[in-house]
Amino acid sequence: MVRVHLVVLSVLALAGCTTPAKGPDDPLGRALTAPLSDLNVVQAEIPPALVAARKAPYQAPVDASCDGIEEEVKELDAVLGADLDTRQTAINPSLIERGVEAASDTAVDAAVGSVRGATEGVVPFRRWVRKLSGAEKYSQEVAAAIAAGLVRRSFLKGYGDARGCLVPAAPRR
């Protein structure tokens, strides 16, 4: 039992001292803070663009000009990442290239997976703890906001296409 407490304290201390080098999408940072997320102590803030999208994904844009639609699409791109119709560049590879890059990082993924497994194992009855702490409900809210953002971006591009707008306010053909 003392060993478990030492592991918990070590992980919490380590998680409290970490500032992910790659930002909120850093897999190692997420792995280290998993117990804090499970206890609903640490929550990633849902970006305002996704909160708005969740409230009204199919609402006509306030600024229905092509520039207004483009601005809203770019805001969603900033929080969701590139859309499927975005051209491949060195900075923004295609989905196929992203898959190849992910497959080539298997050693890193294995190490991060080990850390995640160890930190998630610290919280006994993790599934129940997540439900009781509200962490599971918050995870569902985040997933719903992301889905609404994807739907909103698609709606806006269709709306822009119908108005004769150019990319990125309309889909690339």
What do you see in this structure?
By secondary structure, the chain is mainly alpha-helical. The chain contains nine helices and no strands. Helix 4 (48-55) crosses helix 9 (135-162) and helix 5 (66-80) runs antiparallel to helix 9. The radius of gyration is 20 Å and the shape is elongated. The protein starts with a helix and ends in an 11-residue tail after the last helix. Residues 4-24 have low confidence and may be disordered.
Topology diagram in text:
Blueprint: H1 2-17, H2 27-32, H3 34-38, H4 48-55, H5 66-80, H6 95-104, H7 106-120, H8 126-133, H9 135-162
Short description:
This protein is an all-alpha fold and 173 residues long.
| Cα Rg | 20 Å
Task: Write down the overall geometry.
Answer: elongated
Low-confidence segments, given as residue ranges, are: 4-24
Helix-strand category: mainly alpha
Tell me the distance between the termini: 61 Å
Major beta sheet summary: none
pLDDT averaged over residues: 73
Number of strands: 0
Instruction: State the share of residues found in helices, binned by percent.
Output: 55-70%
Strand proportion, as a percent range, falls in under 5%
Helix and strand element order: HHHHHHHHH
How many separate helices?
9
Oligomer classification = single chain
List keywords for this structure.
173 residues, mainly alpha
